[in-house]
Amino acid sequence: MGQVVMDRGAGNVAGSGPGANGHAATKIRSYAPATGELLGEVKVTSADEVKRAVERARRAQEAWGALPVEERCERVLRFRDAIVDRVDEIVDLLVRECGKPRHEALLHEVMVAADIATFFAKAAPRVLAPHEIKLHLMKHRRSFIHYKPRGVVAVISPWNYPFQLPLRDAILALLAGNAVVIKPSEVTPLIAQKAKEVWDSAGLPEDLLQIVPGFGPTGAALIEAQPDFVILTGSVATGRRVAAACGERLIPCVMELGGKAPLIACADADVERTARAIVFGGFSNSGQVCVSVERVYAHREVHDKLLDRVVELTRELRQGDPSAEFVDVGAIIFPHQIDVAEKHIADALQKGATVRAGGKRREGPGQFFEPTVIDGCNHQMTVMTEEIFGPIVPFMRVSTEEEALRLANDSHLGLNAYVFSRDRDHATRLAERVDAGSVLVNDVLTNGGTPDTPFGGIKASGFGRAMGEEGLREMCNIKHVSVERVGMGSKDPLWFPYTAQSYGWFRKGLRALFSGGGLLQRIGEIL
């Protein structure tokens, strides 16, 4: 087997010990992006420790997977209750380690995780129940589908939502009867440690949910330890490498990767709602959201009014240290994204665009970048074609909705998209033609916290689904059991020996069953 190579984050996190800036680091130091304050240290998990963690998880899974699904649901709800009981300390840590506003830490992280646990604890007994498939031809047999745990699920999670995203996948995996090993981002290691602390405090099996902090080599070691399933949320580049490593080892996986969500503003769009949606969808979590509004295609009849209102609302946003005050926009979690933002803006300006609001780093301490609106953009600019993952919203004027649709689909990414129009039926028809895993009409971002529906992308945005019934069943091996309805005796007509007489009967049966207007078609029409 070849060695797995994964990205190693840098910036507000540094290793210590030999090779402090490389993979030989033995510790991860976490700094507050809003202040630069050292928040704590976490030991890097060695490859041997990762392997032992997976082995312990596998042993713990045997007993957990044998429990009735209803009992697993009850125990996961104990975890949810522990999260709710300790909401203040979780929110405080999210605010400090991520630099995100307190409202977003509460609503987008803790509340979403609690809701996912609640929803799926109720749904799992039904979704994972065995069910019969009615066979259309082999009526002498009955077929049943069973959903069995995969075993050990490896979750490789990102830094933008370090509480909600790993727990989203972990909760579904646990309800399905699996054990979970999480490799959190090295940029936000303390949040994962807090989640593990809360899990243990609920009296749940410690080895069933484990955290293996570290850099890229730790994630590589996790895959090399041969888990039974891998879920990655991350960049397209990392997704390609992890998917290749999983493919080499025949490990099934789900890849939730980058996005470049377009927003189509139709000629009849409600200007005020659309403008507020763009500002919220573009600058929530400082734009560090895979489903952020990353490009706006505004119909010429509404473009100027919409752009002006977006600029006004953007200038009203309060940005600052969320641990000191209530703000709308916090810090940039991973400092590299500031460099990315600056390159996108420089490229756009060089090619004729105009900055209407923001456009630069904020002076003073901390990792802050001003919420930015850019006008006069086109597909020759990287800001319209490459993922930004920062607080930048580029505008492009279009003459028709068909032009907007063509440009929206002109992307290698396809995670989320948005359509705004006063005519819901018209907007829905347009949404159905957009190439994306999810399209929202007159709304933004909310599907990321809607457990009822599947979440995931197409094209280079990945494959497989999180959440929804599809996401829960992704955590299972599908097992088909076929049972005879009536005995066929010892001489089954489909078995040996083959004779000329039996061939003739089967040939006549073929014509009777499948010829135009054949027996099966007529039965189907009757039923």
Automatic annotation (TrEMBL):
Domain spans labelled Aldehyde dehydrogenase: 26-481
Region described as Disordered: spans on this chain: 1-22
GO process annotations (BP): aldehyde metabolic process
GO molecular function terms attached to this record: oxidoreductase activity, acting on the aldehyde or oxo group of donors, NAD or NADP as acceptor
Domain of life assignment: Bacteria
InterPro entries assigned: Ald_DH/histidinol_DH (IPR016161), Ald_DH_C (IPR016163), Ald_DH_CS_GLU (IPR029510), Ald_DH_N (IPR016162), Aldehyde_DH_dom (IPR015590), Aldehyde_DH_NAD(P) (IPR012394)
Gene3D superfamilies given in the database record: Aldehyde Dehydrogenase, Chain A, domain 1, Aldehyde Dehydrogenase, Chain A, domain 2
Residue numbers annotated as active site: E256, C290
This protein's UniProt keywords: Oxidoreductase
Any matching Pfam family: Aldedh
PANTHER family: ALDEHYDE DEHYDROGENASE-RELATED
Family statement: Belongs to the aldehyde dehydrogenase family.
Protein name per Swiss-Prot or TrEMBL: Aldehyde dehydrogenase
Protein's organism: Polyangium jinanense
